[in-house]
Specification:
This protein is of the alpha/beta class. About 35% of the residues lie in helices and about 15% in strands. The radius of gyration is 23 Å and the shape is globular.
Length: about 550
């Protein structure tokens, strides 16, 4: 294979993957039991979920401190930890999310780990993969088309008031120009004028439903429960009223099956679903996680962005829906990220600065407090960089010892599983010490505002919550529709505990401003949208897409 200047892609292309049927055999799956997508990818049937093994085997959740421009490396730690666990004799599998093309072509680039802690085939996983995102997009947009067709129809319409329709189109790409659009131009043949817009596919309710569904029947039922809008007489309209849910679920007949790939060291990995954690629930599918738990002693999974977003939603939404509970949580941090939270500019992060590390520890400490509130053991993993000094590392170690929290170093980028063995041992110790299920942040029988306030005050540290008139109105509508017992899926910037992206560290005395609210009745949660959060991101001035290319032999370059 042709190499590339980028070290991650160069390393990934230097390893020839094992045939996927050989990876399946490591999990006890035979050739006829997986659905192969070429030589190195496959899908696993839902029939492999074994609830007894799900309850017995151990799940480890990987999360992180508040993200910074320096990067933290959650996926690299997750993949390396699986390799490390297998190195110390544990049968382990990774269960992670699928990358969205928005970040791949935008800022982040690829999302398969880094260095010698990667998933392969890296190019395939990052670009379209097995078509799951496309299927989700089509199911989303089928409902959009059926809603518009029903309003247009004279003989069979349900009397939907177009002004109440909040369902949006979906596309797996960052494009700010599609956030707000007008459809129906062109007179009678163009339909009726209506304000609409696009969400990125990772924020579609269809994605959320796929990741929370238990099986095909539950998937279809949830599709039918999607809240579309109201009639002119004020009655609620759902997707099942449009007879949309059967066709929508049919489009997902393959997407609902988890995807099997491998690490660079030939250990199995499942990738399935890809909701963002700042605008959706941020965790892979319940089905994928349960298949992992059914096939391996240890399942390492991941929640997006900082623990205030992905991990909070993992516990309060996913674990509740799936009857799951992690045995341990790995909290990823870096010296560089802590210096950023300590007030150091991005350009100065490689310079030694013990004081900035100390100042930035407030962010790590708040995340530890939050995780401990769930009654789950936490292990801090410091993702190492060559610019880290011994004094800086010791500063973090000393503070974790004061907090009685185990810490170890993640050296998977440079050394693969061998560099993760010590961390893996500490994670096993933590997981084996866990004897109870997690404690949620709030009870489901409390009001929607009480749940929002519990997250804002207990997890974020806010001292005040405000609601716009529109948000108040939709929260009342949700209550009237019988959705008061739904969990909450906050849409908030990933860059701060607050809803102000520029407020790093551990902000205090701040207000969470709930600007809008969306009802996701099919997914079974309510989405308060805070601050300036948008559910369709934009591309940066210099998109990563400008560096991605393919040569005459079909070799891809520029992914990272």
């Amino acid at each position: 294979m042709k190499s590339n200047e980028n070290p991650d892609l160069k390393i990934a292309q230097s390893i020839t993957p094992q045939p996927i049927n050989e990876i399946g055999k490591k999990l006890g799956l035979t050739n006829g039991e997986i659905e192969q997508y070429g030589k190195y990818k496959a899908k696993i049937p839902l029939s492999y979920i074994d609830e007894k093994k799900v309850a017995k085997n151990k799940m480890v959740l990987v999360s992180a401190i508040t993200p910074t421009p320096a990067g933290e490396g959650k996926t690299t730690v997750s993949v390396g930890l699986v390799d490390g666990l297998n190195k110390i004799g544990k049968k382990a599998i990774a269960v992670l999310r699928e990358p969205s093309l928005g970040p791949v072509f935008g800022i982040k680039g690829g999302a398969t780990g880094g260095g010698y802690s990667q998933l392969i085939p890296m190019e395939d996983i990052n670009l379209h993969f097995n078509g799951d995102f496309a299927a989700i997009e089509k199911a989303n947009n089928l409902l959009s088309a059926l809603i518009n067709n029903n309003i247009y129809s004279r003989s069979r319409n349900l009397g939907i008031d177009p002004r109440t329709v909040k369902w949006r189109w979906a596309m797996d790409m960052n494009d700010r120009s599609l956030r707000h659009i007008v459809t129906g131009l062109g007179g009678k043949q163009g339909g009726f004028l209506q304000e609409s817009g696009f969400n990125i596919t990772a924020a579609s309710e269809i994605m959320a439903i796929l990741c929370l569904a238990k099986d095909f029947s539950d998937l279809k039922e949830r599709m039918g429960n999607i809240y579309v809008g109201d009639t002119f007489s004020g009655d609620a309209v759902f997707a099942k009223d449009l007879k949309a849910h059967g066709a929508m679920a049919a489009l997902l007949k393959d997407a609902i099956k988890p995807n099997l790939v491998q690490t660079l060291e030939g250990n199995p990995a499942i990738i399935h679903g890809g909701p963002f954690a700042n605008i959706a629930q941020g965790t892979n599918s319940i089905i994928g996680t349960k298949i992992g738990l059914s096939l391996a002693e240890y399942t390492v999974t991941e929640a997006g962005f900082g623990a205030d977003l992905g991990a909070e939603k993992f516990f309060n939404i996913k674990c509740r829906a799936g009857g799951l509970s992690p045995s341990a949580l790995v909290l990823v941090a870096t010296v560089r990220a802590l210096k950023y939270h300590g007030g150091v500019a991005k350009t100065e992060l490689k310079s030694p600065n013990v004081k900035a590390v100390k100042d930035g520890l407030v962010n790590l400490e708040k995340h530890i407090e939050n995780i401990q509130s769930f009654d789950v053991p936490v292990v801090v993993a410091i993702n190492k960089f060559v610019s880290d000094t011994s004094d800086e590392l010791k500063t973090i170690l000393d503070r974790c010892e004061e907090l009685n929290v185990p810490l170890d170093y993640s050296d998977g980028w440079a050394n693969g599983g061998e560099g993760m063995k010590d961390l893996a041992s500490k994670v096993v110790d933590a997981a084996e010490s866990c004897t109870s299920t997690f404690k949620p942040t709030y009870e489901l029988n409390t009001s929607l505002k009480e749940k929002i306030e519990a997250i804002s005050e207990q997890i974020y540290g806010a001292n005040k919550i405000t609601y716009s008139p529109s948000a108040d109105s939709i929260l009342k509508r949700a209550k009237d529709l019988g959705f008061e017992n739904f969990p909450i899926c906050m849409a908030k910037t990933q860059n701060s505990f607050s809803d102000d992206a520029s407020s790093y560290g551990r902000p205090t005395n701040f207000t969470i401003n709930v600007r809008e609210v969306e009802i996701a009745a099919g997914a079974g949660f309510i989405i308060p949208i805070t601050g300036k959060m948008l559910r369709m991101p934009g591309l940066p001035t210099v998109p990563a897409a400008e560096n991605i290319d393919i040569d005459g032999e079909g070799n891809i370059s520029g992914l990272f």
